[in-house]
Amino acid sequence: MAPVSASSRLSPIDSSRCPIFPMVFVAFAVGACTPLNGPGDAAADAPSNPDTPASDLRADMPPPGCTRFTYGPTMVEARMLTRPVCIDSTEVTQAQYQQFLTAKNGKTDGQDPECAWNVVFAPSLMCTFDPVNKGSYPVNGVDWCDAKAFCKWAGKRLCGGGNGGLITTDTIAGLGSSEVDEWTAVCSHNDERAYPYGTSLQPEACNGGEHSGMPRAIVPVGTTPGCEGGFPGVFDLAGNVHEWEDACYAFTPPGDRADKCWFRGGSYHDLDNSCTSAWEVSRDYVDYLCDIGFRCCADP
């Protein structure tokens, strides 16, 4: 997929980022890569009070560290230039997202103010959500607020800025540095790599449009072992499905659901996705190609 101007806008109705689908997109691309079903795929049993963040579960919980988190994919420790960061080893799976839905039991309280409009966490009906038969596949059909809510419930956060907070930028350049972006830092091993697995495109490494052996479809997380990196134990950072990031800005006309947010990493049908790939869409956007998921970050 060739880069286009950062001033372009994706429309929830007519947008697509696949070369075979006509659609306007904003891309910041260099390579493709998405593995599947790897570490942390299976959903852990919910604790007795599954709506309580993992950090509040018990007084005798283990000391701080990336392995302490109970919900979602297993977290591994990576490092930004200035500090360590925990990151989900894979994208959140359908089985893990179902845990969240079961725990919330239809409630959508506790969201940040910009998500007050979001009254349903379930994935869009236009996307396949089958946590029983496709439990190891990445969840998709979720908007930015759904992803944000899951990470908050899990005691984690959407991957964001250098200090773990929101990245406020309306340009791709605002996401491209490991100093200011957790997702970029982990994917690129702090700007040392263009792709999670190395410095040059390897078409067969990940579930992207170049991969000749893939079915041109979403596959279980972590099952493409060549797509590991930029730190050991981290899979799926490019290809398979895109990933929401905690990076947004106010758009015109202003409005919480109309604000623009960014997603990263390319998907199964995109070409040449890299650690700098990024697209902007409205906060409430759900792609009809059903190829946007997410993972979470946290402090060790």
Structural commentary:
- This protein is mostly beta strands.
- Helices cover 9% and strands 12% of the residues.
- The chain has helices at residues 94-104, 144-153, 182-188; strands at residues 75-79, 84-88, 157-158, 167-168, 242-249, 260-264, 278-282, 292-293, 296-298.
- The strands form two sheets. Strands 4, 5, 6, 7 and 8 form a five-stranded mixed β-sheet that branches. Strands 1-2-9-3 form a four-stranded antiparallel β-sheet, sandwiched between helices.
- Strand 1 (75-79) and strand 2 (84-88) form a beta hairpin.
What descriptive keywords fit this protein?
300 residues, mainly beta, paralog of FGE (formylglycine-generating enzyme), five-stranded mixed beta sheet, 3 helices, 9 strands, disordered N terminus
Mean pLDDT: 83
Which descriptor suits the 3D outline? globular
The name CATH uses for the topology is paralog of FGE (formylglycine-generating enzyme)
Q: What's the multimeric state?
A: single chain
In what range is the share of β-strand residues?
5-15%
The rounded Rg comes to 17 Å
CATH architecture: Alpha-Beta Complex
How many beta-strand runs? Answer: 9
Q: Give the structural class.
A: mainly beta
- Name of the level-1 CATH class: Alpha Beta
How much helicity do the residues have?
under 10%
Low-confidence stretches: 1-62
Largest sheet: 5 strands, mixed
Order of helices and strands: EEHHEEHEEEEE
Number of domains: 1
Q: Count helical runs.
A: 3
Report, as a whole number of angstroms, the end-to-end distance: 35 Å
